[in-house]
Model the fold of this input.
Amino acid sequence: MSRAPRLEPQIVRTGMVVVLGTIMSILDTTIVAVALHTLSHDFRVSIATIQWVTTGYLLALAIVIPVSGWAVHRFGAKPVYQISLVLFVVGSALSGLAWSATALIIFRVIQGIGGGMIVPVGQSILARTAGPQRMSEVMAIVGVPQLLGPILGPVIGGLIVANTTWRWIFFVNVPIGIVALVLAQRFLAPTAPDGGRRFDFLGFALLSPGLALVVYGLAEVGTQGGFRGASVWDSLIVGFALIAGFVVRGLRAREPLIDLRLFRDRTFALASTGIFLLGAALYGTMFLLPLYYQTVRGDSAWVAGLMMAPQGIGAAVSMRPGGILADRRGPRYVVPIGVVILSIGTFAYTQVSATSNYALLAVALFIRGLGMGVTMMPTFASSYRNLTHEDVPKATSATNILRQVGGSLGVAVFAVVLQTQVTRSLPVTGALIQAGKVRATPGELQVIAGAFAHSFWWSFLVSAIVFVPSLLLPNRGIRHAGAPSLAVD
Done:
């Protein structure tokens, strides 16, 4: 049996630099989750406000993805990667120094702009260094942090918050980022810009504020206690109008920010719908989970992070087998099963109380992770089934944006649902308990647990809806399964 050829030293060094940057970016999508309860207390703000610490980061990740492709063509991959690292490090340092919730949210957006470029640009550099014949091997390298991020993020965040201060969640990125910068300067090969691609500034100017206003309007629903008030309706109306303008622009522009013409392909449209909903279910639920353990159960950030680990472990166990089976049999035979498993695991959390058994909750979260692993990768792979080679980079950009936007909307909506339920159930003390100004009685904790259970029903519903498009995915396998190129183009 012959051994597979070893990767060249240049590929290994490039992979090391890319993985280091990718780890920072991906960990920061989950590491902050266990600190939200502490942040809400320290800054004396509501859940509807503090959710922007996560939502702002996810939105920044989404809107900067198409920018990165243009920037690589315009300036070259190496300088863009270095700039993205600088932005991420600066945003991390400023986040650690934040003096208010507003300042932290702004600095998280800066961090997200850098983090959003790190992953696609790094993958582009690695793909160009390795060449098409080594893509499967090098993409497996990049996949490691994507697999470990959901497992390690909450645990590391919990350890930091429990033993130091939430500020070190951000400060820890600074030395790692500096090391990544030094290694990038030393090991990454320079690439000449080609300047052959235009940037859709009008599309960017429509989409970015449009998404931000929609999410802000949803957050204001929680603050106002319902769909009333000028701030809610003005934000939603203007936001949706801007997004509608972006859609019109995307269908007519020669080089749009997101090529909406891809959605004419039925399989791509179905898979994209699933990706959007799965993003909402994943990130929205990861927002709720640590808050439940810390607010209702009184657990430390460390315990809350540890209790979230089973989901990542479950996903790690099932992701590869699910992908292989989908390639052989077809995603229609795999994804619906994954959705059912995901929904079963989520259903257990719709029954939570102030005294729910920890072991049962951990098992349920492991089951949820199994379902997410079986569902997510085959759904992503399905989006490429009928596309040409030239369309793959455009599809990669579109699907990653949809996942991040779905995640940001999921966090915002679930936060609004939770905030509204707590306020309605405990109109006098609910906000004070959430902000840590008063201690809840056992009876009030049971009421708040009910609010969480209601919020988890929304997660269950979003997860279950994915079952509909999953039944319409292709029912045939692919003869030669291969990972699509994730390179920015």
About this structure: DSSP finds 19 helices and no strands in the chain. The two ends are 37 Å apart (CA to CA).
